[in-house]
Task: structure prediction
Amino acid sequence: MIILKYPPVHNIIDNFAVILDSFIMIIAAIVVTDLNNAIGKDNQLLCHLPADLKFFKKTTMGAPIIMGRKTYESIGRLLPGRRNMVITRSSDYKLEGAEIYHTLETALKNCTEEKVFIIGGAEIFNHAFPMITEIYRTVIKTSFVADTHFPDINTMEFDMDWQECHGADEKNKYDYCFQRWLRL
Ligand SMILES: NC(=O)c1ccc[n+]([C@@H]2O[C@H](COP(=O)([O-])OP(=O)(O)OC[C@H]3O[C@@H](n4cnc5c(N)ncnc54)[C@H](OP(=O)(O)O)[C@@H]3O)[C@@H](O)[C@H]2O)c1
Result:
């Protein structure tokens, strides 16, 4: 049970009130982007940044993670220690160890945890965006050629309350910043 300063989600999406009969759930997005909000190309991430993988693991551990079918296939395995929830329109899609849903809304209605993470990709981020109240964004300080993007974070709607920046090193080829954005 958690009450935060964010606007109740049912103020944003009416038909989500059912989720909120007994508690308010934080719907968070976690994403790594370049300077132009690019997130992927050819169903892969844009680069390998070990520090971000570590941050992703630490941040999401124990919480449900919701992803599109293409992102699941791009990762290629279940992520341990978390409910893996995969969204697909295919009625016969099966995946041992994962929960399959045919709409994002149904996946969210099946969560009772305090916080869930939407982990991508672009199609799922776009659909979920109006419901998202927290964004964990890693910004890689470069520009990649890409075919998928995260929605623009409008500073009229979100405030960055935390940022931690790091320089490139022998393991991480680019400068990067971890950021947390909260819906106003
Ligand atoms: N940088 C990051 O943080 C990050 C994170 C995640 C992913 N990515 C990248 O993003 C790219 C993948 O993104 P994407 O947009 O192509 O794919 P996606 O969002 O991962 O998956 C799209 C698929 O999800 C299902 N889906 C989407 N909306 C749905 C809905 N409303 N109802 C039911 N099913 C729905 C459909 O599956 P079916 O076709 O099976 O019906 C659709 O084809 C890859 O390059 C990946 O590496 C980047």
In short: Residues 31-32, 39-40, 43-45, 67-71, 74, 87-90, 102-104, 119-124, 127, 148 surround NAP (CB under 6 Å). The first strand starts at residue 26 and ends at 33. The longest helix spans residues 50-60. Residues 4 and 148 are 31 Å apart (CA to CA).
